[in-house]
From TrEMBL:
The lineage of its organism: Bacteria, Bacillati, Actinomycetota, Actinomycetes, Streptosporangiales. InterPro entries: AurF/CmlI (IPR025859), Ferritin-like_SF (IPR009078), RNR-like (IPR012348). It comes from Nocardiopsis mwathae. This is Diiron oxygenase. GO terms for molecular function: oxidoreductase activity.
Length: 316
């Protein structure tokens, strides 16, 4: 697909009907599907070592193997806390999206179905955080405030572009984790459920983003690019709460600086975002001032090692 060729949009009702059918066949109750009584295996990593934000740094070399595994558990818990935060925002946005639409339509009924899924996911993530022995990594006041603003002002492309970004990032990390038998079984079980159900959510968001993006004029698109860039920046730079580093004896400020500059961590974020960058970049949603925030968040690669992001000029 080239940028000047608008993507083919399938029938909204037909897609929603398929997603509703899929939900009926493959939905899970995490409280039943997961063995919450099983003890955490502290001899295993919660995520692959190379996905830990400090991997390869001098601070990583200071840590014992036990501390590295502990840090992996806290980083997974921190990412799960971000997931809960954004899923709560998404549920509110989906309720607003459905508010004045026909509830007898498949489209709105799937929105309600996704809200129910997200409720279960938030409970599942919260229980996992507790089992991993981590606290609830609450976001800083500025990000909390911006989240309140975003959920109140977001319209079509912002609702579904923001949702697609967060869902794709988590999906890539969890797809890798769920098939790695060396990792903590609880994390793998949570990842498996989330990946299966989020596949439907991403299809819904991808279709609706493309549909609403095409209807917007250039001014509205420019506004959406900027706000989406801010959402991406604040979500990505808060993935790892600095307090996670303190739990393994590191200075949070020093560790945060090291992670921000760590080429391995930048590459991990670029890898996790590659599909959503291709989707939104191909639509022309990553350009102008908003693109600055995508790059500042470490999602467009390191200088000299940058993945291509489709632009209209390049497409021509």
């Amino acid at each position: 697909m080239t940028v000047q060729d608008e993507p083919r949009i399938t029938d909204r009702e037909d897609i929603a009907k398929r997603l509703l059918r899929s939900s009926a066949k493959a939905s899970f109750d995490p409280l039943v599907e997961i063995d919450w009584d099983a003890p955490i295996d502290r001899d295993r990593y919660a995520t692959r070592p190379e996905r830990v934000s400090l991997y390869g740094t001098e601070l990583w070399e200071r840590l014992t193997e036990e501390q590295r595994k502990e840090l992996s558990r806290h980083e997974v818990a921190s990412i799960a806390s971000i997931g809960i935060w954004f899923e709560t925002i998404l549920m509110q946005m989906l309720v607003r999206h459905a508010y004045d639409r026909d509830p007898t339509s498949n489209h709105v009924q799937y929105a309600y179905t996704e809200i129910a899924d997200e409720c279960r996911h938030s409970v599942m993530f919260a229980k996992m955080v507790g089992k991993l022995g981590a606290p609830h990594y609450k976001l800083d006041p500025v990000t909390q405030f911006l989240g309140r603003v975003f959920k109140s002002i977001a319209h079509g492309p912002l609702i579904f572009g923001g949702a697609l970004f967060v869902e794709e990032i988590l999906d890539q990390i969890q797809r890798e984790a769920m098939v790695d038998e060396s990792l903590e079984p609880l994390v793998r079980a949570v990842s498996r459920i989330h990946v299966v159900e989020e596949a439907r959510h991403m299809r819904y968001a991808r279709e609706e983003f493309a549909r609403t993006w095409q209807r917007h004029n250039p001014v509205a698109r420019a506004y959406s690019r900027l706000v989406l860039g801010l959402v991406v920046y604040y979500s990505t730079t808060r993935l790892i709460n600095p307090r996670a580093y303190a739990h393994v004896g590191l200075d949070p400020r020093e560790a945060r600086r090291a992670a921000r500059r760590n080429p391995h961590w930048i590459d991990t974020k670029t890898w996790a975002a590659r599909k959503v960058v291709a989707t939104l970049g191909g639509a022309g949603a990553i350009s102008g001032p908003g693109r600055y925030f995508w790059r500042k968040a470490g999602l467009l690669g390191r200088p000299g090692n940058r993945p291509a992001v489709p632009t209209r000029a390049a497409a021509r």
